[in-house]
Amino acid sequence: MSSQPARWTQATVYPDMWADPDDDPREKDGASPEGELATLQDFLEGYRLTLRMKCDGLNAEQLARRSVPPSTMSLLGLVRHLAEVERDWHNWIRDGDPLPKLYGKRDADFEGAVADQTVVDAAYADLEREQAATDAALAATEDLGARVGKEGIAVRELMVHRIEEYARHCGHADLLRECVDGRVGQ
After folding, report:
1. 70: cis peptide before it, omega within 30°?
2. From 134's CA, which of 37, 90, 113, 163 has a CA 20 to 30 Å away?
3. Which residues are CB-neighbours of 18 under 8 A, at least 6 positions away?
4. CA separation for the pair 102, 3 (Å, rounded)
5. pLDDT-based confidence at 159, cuts 50/70/90?
6. What is the average per-residue pLDDT within 155-169?
7. Residue partners of 37: CB distance under 8 A and separation at least 6
8. For residues 69 and 3, is the Cβ–Cβ distance under 8 A?
9. What is the rounded distance in angstroms from the CA atom of residue 147 to the CA atom of residue 41?
């Protein structure tokens, strides 16, 4: 017997997908968004939702499981990491002193991802709060070429960087989820 979980998916139409198109909340009927900003926001929301979907249905132990030793990466660690990254991005564009790190020293976001439901709940709350803060700060600027914050980063660059970060970590989440319970899909 192998300790590796059997591969599986809930999809029946396309067996390599996470869910059937009719059941996938990322599938939208109609035309794609109008304009560059709406397109960037749509992609960002899609990756945010994908991360949530990859974590859905798992308990605290499964979310905290480090599936690829010696890495400290886990699905819960990814949620915590992205909360920390959202705070960093908000710090890049806000006036005044930067807000302190959420989890402390470097890599504490991953190292502190332990199998405790209160840690899981706090991680999701942190992520939602930090996403909302960064989104609100950027909502004040519709010009994607505008330069914001002390570093003068272009809003467009920040939006693309956010998409890249979530997309990269959704790829990690694919592999981590498959190691946890065998579930596969895009």
Report:
1. yes
2. 113
3. 9, 10, 11, 24, 53, 183, 184, 185, 186
4. 35
5. very high
6. 96
7. 142, 144, 159
8. no
9. 18
In 3-state terms, what secondary structure has residue 172? helix
Confidence of residue 20 (pLDDT cuts 50, 70, 90): confident
| pLDDT tens digits for range 63-102 | 999 977 788 999 999 999 999 999 999 998 888 889 999 9
What token pair was written down for 38? 């709406």
pLDDT of residue 2 exceeding 70, the answer is no
In angstroms, the CA 138 to CA 152 distance is 13
H-helix segments, 32-116: 36-55, 60-64, 75-93, 108-111
- Domains annotated on the chain, with CATH: 39-180 (1.20.120.450)
Residue 185 has pLDDT above 90, yes or no: no
Q: What is the three-class DSSP state of 183?
A: strand
DSSP letters for 150-162: TTTEEHHHHHHHH
CB 179 within 8 A of CB 2: no
Segment 97-154, tens digit of pLDDT:
899 999 988 888 999 999 999 999 999 999 999 999 999 999 888 899 999 988 899 9
